[in-house]
Specification:
Structural class: alpha+beta
Number of helices: 16
Radius of gyration: 22 Å
Shape: globular
Bound molecules: protoporphyrin IX containing FE
Order of helices and strands: EEHEEHHHHHEHHHHHHHHEEEEHHEEEE
CATH topology: Cytochrome p450
CATH superfamily: Cytochrome P450
């Protein structure tokens, strides 16, 4: 593999007042098809040439298949809003990679199923429900702070795991109920991560002409991972249906909201698919956001100082709470800038239902239409110093074009958990940053890699330095 394709080097620049965090140096030459395929399988964000970071729209082919690449706000609006009906379908790669686990869950459904389920799911994760879930967020972050405080001084932690544990605790209690047993939640988490290790987001069948791709091969380990998730989720659903669930959990809301909507009740499999989808969509996305935020703050001392000063002045010695978020503007800006630089979902692939036209490009039926937050967020045509870490850009009050900044996607399929995820990440950052500085292992350099989400390759080893919360008043 190495003979045909060499992954690009990463660039990272750290000075006392500027920080350009790690990103693959774009290829200067066009890659041939073999290189694109091998590159896409090793790291989807590393294969793009320089020109694709500009505001542009282009069309090319991989084997027999047309790929339409859309990287400017106006054409993105056309795809996801004006022609939503023709481009709402996820790519066969994504559908095939996730269908064994999520069935017809919202993330990969389309057409009538998506239309019917979207209002249900959007309602139960809506921002007006955040006060109910805020307490779970606070408790889970404080529990992690306590565990960290009990570690022997100088201990090393692995941040992607720690943040995964934290966001899984939050989303599992929110979805399944506060009384979900710890080992049941752990089984779901392990099942998901084992599944992800064996999921392949490249589907050769599609490029060879099968419009819906080939079913993904299901080995023994993948089947075991699926069973680990399904067993727990189904037993939680059955407990709720038998009246023994936690009132106020998302599963409970889903069942009640669906009954109120009338029509066909959702069966256990449909409820399982939606609950598993919310868990998956809300777990690793927030965990990787937090992981990257720690790495960015550790290398940008001025921003870390501003975050700490803000927390001290807003909260003094008490722990930050959901109600403090409107005043924790620096913490929020750090999360927003982290989502710009490292969007957890860096590619939004869609499939054209019918032939269509986007700007100057004729789109064939079943073509792959690729929108890439990774590239859009780093476009020199849209962002000043696009590769710099500058949380200040979200503090200035300047309007951010909603079609230029899309970590949660945009249009009718926008992430329904956007406010949940933003508040959760900001609150967890504030609670933990009040008590600890998180420092990557000496000499450690993060390398962003994308499989299903964008994460630091090999994890992020770090040590903790306890700090005393101060009340400046
Ligand atoms: C920082 C955290 C998060 C990020 C960056 C994020 C990002 C996204 C993105 C980009 C999509 C659209 C994917 C596509 O169109 O291909 C999406 C969809 C979705 N997200 Fe999130 N998400 C986050 C947190 C959450 C949370 C906390 C929840 C639930 C509580 C959630 C639930 C969902 C669901 C159910 C969908 C599917 C929506 C649909 O297809 O109609 N997400 N998310």
């Amino acid at each position: 593999m190495m003979r045909f394709y060499r992954s690009p080097d990463n660039l990272e620049i750290i000075t006392s007042d500027e920080y350009v965090p790690p990103h693959p140096i774009p290829h200067s030459d066009d890659l041939n098809i073999i290189q694109i395929i091998l590159g896409a399988r090793s790291n989807l964000i590393g294969v793009w040439p320089e020109a694709y970071y500009r505001s542009t729209i282009d069309s090319f082919r991989i084997l027999g298949r047309q790929i339409v690449f859309v990287n400017d706000p106006e054409h993105i609006r056309h795809v996801v809003v004006a022609r939503h009906g023709n481009f709402e379908r996820k790519s066969p790669q994504m559908r095939r990679a996730l269908e064994a686990l999520l069935g017809d869950g919202l993330f990969i459904s389309d057409g009538e199923t998506w239309k019917r389920r979207r209002p249900l799911v959007a309602d139960i994760v809506h921002k007006r429900r955040l006060p109910e879930f805020g307490q779970t967020m606070e408790e889970a972050a404080l529990a992690v702070a306590q565990e960290w405080a009990a570690l022997p001084p100088g201990s090393e932690i692995e941040l992607t795991e720690e943040m995964g544990r934290l966001t899984a605790a939050i989303i599992s209690r929110a979805v399944f109920g506060k009384n979900i047993a710890r080992d049941a939640a752990q089984q779901v988490i392990e099942g998901f991560s084992a599944y992800q290790r064996h999921a392949d987001s490249f589907n050769l069948g599609y490029f060879l002409g099968a419009d819906n791709g080939w079913p993904a091969f299901g080995g023994r380990r993948r089947r075991k991972a699926i069973a680990m998730v399904h067993d727990v989720v189904e037993s939680v659903i059955n407990a709720h249906l038998a009246g023994e669930g936690d009132a106020g959990s998302m599963v409970d809301l889903l069942i009640r909201r669906n009954e109120k909507a009338g029509g066909e009740p959702l069966d256990v499999t449909a409820l399982r698919n939606e609950a598993a989808t919310i868990f998956m969509a809300g777990h690793e996305t927030t965990a990787t956001t937090l992981t990257w935020a720690w790495y960015l703050l550790a290398n940008a001392s001025w921003a870390a100082r501003s975050v700490r000063q803000e927390i001290d002045s807003v909260c003094g010695a008490r722990a930050p709470a959901l109600a403090d978020l409107p005043q924790l503007r620096w913490c929020r800006a750090v999360i927003q800038e982290t989502l710009r630089l490292y969007p957890p979902v860096p590619l939004l692939p869609r499939q054209a239902l019918q032939a269509d036209r986007i700007g100057p490009v004729d789109v064939e039926k079943s073509a792959l239409v690729m929108i890439a937050p990774w590239l859009l967020h780093r476009s020199p045509d849209l962002w000043e110093k696009p590769n710099h870490f500058l949380p200040e850009r979200f503090l200035s009050g300047a309007r951010i074009d909603p079609f230029a900044y899309i970590p949660f996607a945009v249009g009718p399929r926008i992430c329904p958990g956007m406010n949940f995820g933003l508040d959760e990440a900001t609150l967890c950052l504030a609670i933990l940053a009040q008590r600890f500085e998180v420092l990557p292992r000496d000499g450690y350099k993060a390398e962003p890699v994308c499989r299903l989400t964008l994460r630091p390759k090999g994890g992020l080893p770090a040590r903790l330095v306890a700090r005393q919360a101060r009340n400046p008043l």
